[in-house]
Specification:
Helix content is about 45%, strand content about 15%. By secondary structure, it is an alpha/beta fold. Strand 14, helix 21 (about 515-530) and strand 15 form a beta-alpha-beta unit. Helix 5 packs parallel to helix 10 (about 200-210), helix 12 (about 235-250) crosses helix 15 and helix 19 (about 450-465) runs parallel beside helix 22 (about 545-560). Keywords: Gluconeogenesis, Glycolysis, Isomerase. Belongs to the GPI family. One of its GO terms (molecular function) is glucose-6-phosphate isomerase activity.
Amino acid sequence: MQPGSLAEAIARTLAQWTAERRVARLWTKDASLWTSSGEEKWLGWLDVIEAQRRELGARTALADAIRTEGITDVLLLGMGGSSLGPEVVFRVIGGATGAPRLHVLDSTDPAQVKRFDDAVDLRSTLVLVASKSGSTLEPNVFLAYFFDRLKQVVGEAEAGRHVVAITDPGSQMQKVAERDGFRAIAFGEPTVGGRFSVLSAFGTVPAALSGVDVACLLDEAAQMADACRSEDAATNPGVALGVVIGEAAKAGRDKLTILASPGIAPLGAWLEQLVAESTGKNGTAVIPVDLEPRGDASTYGSDRLFVYLRLAADADADQDAFVEQLNHAGQPVVKIDVRDTYALGQEFFRWEIATAVAGAVLGINPFDQPDVEASKIKTRALTDAFEQEGALPAEAPVVLDTEMAIFTDEANVRALGPVATPVEAIAAHLRRVVAGDYVALLAYIDMTTDNIAALQEIRAVIRAQAGTATCLGFGPRFLHSTGQAYKGGPDSGVFLQITCDDAVDVQVPGRAFTFGVVKAAQARGDFGVLEERGRRALRVHLGADVAAGLQALRSAVEGTYQ
């Protein structure tokens, strides 16, 4: 579909939404807008702003109390919707002077767990554990570790006073909090799914504790909510964006490429989860592409829709020029002007509406995540096996050398053809990329600045040489985010999973396994589901010297295109 016909399709759908009063039906939680399969049970986020305004007194009281007691750091333990939103708020708005610093741990990589432990003095740290159900693996092992550490540092009698739980009423986490004497429990709303929860307690509690003006953030969100009640779909900022995203995806422009001013760029990580986990199912997906290294505007394919989030106080002239080049090249670009950092509240609500509407346009239920559970089941089976046998099941590489070992299933081995080295296997794998595909690097390694930079360089090579969209996710956090789209969306992904030996490991208190074992089980569970879905997937295992391994991987990728 050419840009002209895309514009016509968008106009038709906007007119239909207006004529059929679909905006009013959205606000009355009419599940028939989607698939009539229980969507009405997950629309509490439409009402959450007023509910949180009623909690402002409690949020302020808790924040004042911990500051008075000399708390200097807040360590948030969460995953997915429980961690990405608070991290974005803190990184974009920042904490107030004198308020505790917020640290967000959402990785089972043992080096990362140890680094977060070393970064705080637990005597003056409040641990904030966030889990809707209380049954999610990652927050539970994080809590086991840091509650044990608190007992060592402040004593068993005082450990609970250093912990606050955010969870849904009646959850397993509530029971743990009451049993262990946690300082407080903040309750979420059961009708708000994790990825829509940033304006609920899961976002407002950590924001308040780090000194963010939560009332101002909610006021901004309320302004957008009011605008999104407009029944004229074309002038409704959330609905119009959702229709554009949905119709673009139907037209083959399903790689939602996020461009953002530096000051608001952290929002992309939250958008990745919201969009991918909501739309990626039943063979359909909008694939968000965040923080991709830029190339010449003329080299992008016809599968892209660009969204430019321009922060007025932090506009970048080079970025503005690049967007103009995209326009001249005929690429569709949606420009969103963000007034200041507190207008982040507006963007949260705008994009929640847009994602719900895009789901309606695509004919899917945007509030479930049927393929996320598949990885959890496989991970649980592997950790159970470790506790019973003392080791993960044996596996054999397809090929290996001193720097890398390659793993995949029989179907992918046959597709690769004869390969004698890891370099040959990587080259054969990347040569399977065709127009309309995307390449995703799935890295189960420590999320350090150096490792991110090395993987970004590899992305840049692939994007430039293959002309395809590229994604980068760190495990296990992407499992609760883009992982849904990778498994439930169309077979347009080419996956390169990256694992490593852990130079240092950390024991999970009360369990037979370590964090390294948990991470390995998550990687293998993730890869196993990709294999079951018939995805083009290759696992590259590096040694303990991750920097050298990533350099070898980059050389192999570069060699593919020479």
